[in-house]
Amino acid sequence: MQRVLSGIQPSGIPTLGNYLGAIRNWVPMQDDHECLFCVVDLHAITAVFQEPEVLRRQTREMAAALIACGIDPDRCTLFVQSHVHAHHRLAWIFNNVVRMGWLNRMTQFKDKAGKDRENVSAGLFIYPALMAADILVYKATKVPVGDDQKQHLELTNDIAQKFNHDYGVDYFPQVEALIQGVAARVMSLRDGTKKMSKSDPSDQSRINLTDDADTIANKIKRAKTDPEPLPEHVSGLEGRPEARNLVGILAAITGTTPEGVLREHGGQGFGSFKGVLTDALVSHLEPIQKRMQHLLTDPNALDLLLRKGADRASSIADPIADEVERMVGFLPRR
Ligand code: AMP
Ligand code: TRP
């Protein structure tokens, strides 16, 4: 059975982008793959300062959200990244395999650092090496992610290849990015050219998985659109990023295609279309929210699940980290 790994940062409430681009695609993989899913708290401290209490809360919230969305701790390994020390160990080695030039090309770093490159953390710069370690410390070969992570996975393969070459081994496998669905990149509700993100300063730009019906209605109502009615065909979405985004969201939520959505709603103005979209979102998210709230009423049970997940993850990752350290020439402790 192929091994799958993916991760998500506990840097806020998961958005509709996280859900449609990633989490939702993880769920069916549990049926026919060995799956590992981690809440990547080591990554969450790279971009902006996280208040310790908030980080702790958001880590539990993210775990609860994943379970509520259908990630089943009995059928996969769900854990918190920092609990499995093998990630840190392999990441350090990879920091010395990856080249500055490779990291300098990462568009996510450029986006996140913006004009303030001198003042961002070194962790933000080396983040892709940690991500490579997250995957390769399990020798996972399939990684379901949103479209924005494609470049990081190409880098993961470069790191694996250089490691194998430098140490004269055929140890790390190549990994495959699984970028699935009509909503592999959900865009901001305020600007159809920017991706929807947990860290956007404007809450109006995103749907959070915990938003109630009124909030969703309000955000969709205020979502940016253009004055034209919806086109009859997908080709008519060309140059209309906001319309394309809303059509894509409805298609993803209702399990159809953008073409299918336009067959039904083409020619309609945004007023009535937004009503349909709101209803679909509310009825899809409501049961998830209820499950999430219920899980958060018992943080001890949640912590116990995560501890078990970390033990299981460590039992795979520790021997791999030991083996890699031996290949590198670190003297074994025993
Ligand atoms: P992050 O929020 O950066 O931890 O991302 C977690 C997962 O969600 C990754 O697989 C991302 O590719 C995916 N993701 C994040 N934002 C979006 C978005 N706007 N559209 C689609 N997928 C996304
Ligand atoms: N970098 C990913 C993101 O921001 C999260 C992540 C960390 C990840 N480690 C990973 C995703 C390993 C897939 C596999 O979205």
Structural class: mainly alpha
Sketch the major β-sheet: 3 strands, parallel
**Poorly predicted sequence stretches spanning 5 or more consecutive residues:** none
Shape: globular
H/E topology pattern? EHEHHEHHHHEHEHHHHH
Count of individual beta strands: 5
Share of helix among residues?
Answer: 40-55%
Bound molecules: adenosine monophosphate, tryptophan
- The protein's oligomeric status is single chain
- How much of the sequence lies in strands comes to 5-15%
Structural write-up:
- This protein is mainly alpha-helical.
- The chain has helices at 16-29, 41-44, 52-68, 86-95, 100-104, 107-113, 122-136, 150-166, 213-222, 241-254, 258-265, 270-296, 299-328, and strands at residues 3-8, 34-39, 77-80, 142-144, 176-178.
- Helix 3 crosses helix 12, helix 7 crosses helix 8 and helix 10 packs across helix 12.
- The longest helix has 30 residues, at 299-328.
- The two termini are 32 Å apart.
- It binds adenosine monophosphate (AMP) and tryptophan.
- Residues 8-9, 17-18, 21-22, 145-146, 148-149, 184-186, 195-198 line the site of adenosine monophosphate (AMP).
Which terms summarize this structure?
334 residues; two-stranded parallel sheet; mainly alpha; binds adenosine monophosphate; binds tryptophan
Write the layout of secondary structure elements.
Blueprint: E1 3-8, H1 16-29, E2 34-39, H2 41-44, H3 52-68, E3 77-80, H4 86-95, H5 100-104, H6 107-113, H7 122-136, E4 142-144, H8 150-166, E5 176-178, H9 213-222, H10 241-254, H11 258-265, H12 270-296, H13 299-328
Parallel strand pairs: 1-2, 2-3, 4-5
Helix pairs in contact: 3-12, 4-7, 4-13, 7-8, 9-12, 10-11, 10-12
The structure holds adenosine monophosphate and tryptophan (TRP).
Tryptophan binds next to β1 and α7.
